[in-house]
């Protein structure tokens, strides 16, 4: 279809350049072709603008995701170290209490043997 329209537009343009009078439908075809070309150019321009905006948005989101990932990894590592420290303190406290209980049991055993 586009080839056919292009062929007619070329013939009409040649006729106009030769100085011949154009019919109403020939003028209409030229106007339609001009409108099509104009719209096509605007669509391509808008498409390029949208593609650029999409690319910028994608890069921005990827950068934000990387920031968030690093922040989360840092928090996770900090929480892990905190928990390990608390576990170590609890372990030492438990070992201390266990030692105290063992000492008391030994002391009770000694008293019972007497």
Give the integer mean of the pLDDT values: 93
Taking pLDDT < 50 over at least 5 consecutive residues as the criterion, the unreliable ranges are none
Helix content: over 70%
Q: How far is the N terminus from the C terminus?
A: 116 Å
Q: Tell me what portion of residues adopts beta-strand conformation.
A: under 5%
Largest sheet: none
- Assembly form of the protein: single chain
* Number of DSSP helical runs: 2
Q: How is this structure best described in words?
A:
By secondary structure, the chain is mainly alpha-helical. Helix content is 93%, strand content 0%. Helix 1 (2-17) crosses helix 2 (24-113). The longest helix is centred in the middle third of the chain and has 90 residues, at 24-113. It is rod-shaped. It starts with a helix and ends with a helix. The relative contact order is 0.04. The mean pLDDT is 93.
Brief summary:
This protein is mainly alpha-helical. 93% of the residues lie in helices and 0% in strands. α1 packs across α2 (24-113).
In terms of topology, how is this protein built?
Elements: H1 2-17, H2 24-113
Keywords:
114 residues; mainly alpha; 0% strand; rod-shaped
């Amino acid at each position: 279809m586009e080839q056919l329209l292009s062929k007619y537009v070329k013939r009409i343009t040649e006729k106009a350049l030769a100085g011949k009078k154009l019919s109403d439908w020939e003028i209409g075809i030229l106007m339609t072709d001009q409108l099509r070309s104009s719209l096509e150019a605007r669509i391509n321009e808008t498409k390029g603008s949208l593609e650029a905006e999409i690319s910028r948005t994608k890069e921005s989101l990827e950068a934000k995701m990387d920031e968030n990932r690093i922040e989360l990894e840092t928090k996770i590592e900090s929480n892990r170290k905190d928990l390990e420290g608390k576990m170590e303190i609890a372990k030492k406290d438990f070992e201390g209490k266990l030692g105290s209980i063992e000492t008391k049991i030994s002391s009770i055993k000694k008293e019972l043997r007497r």
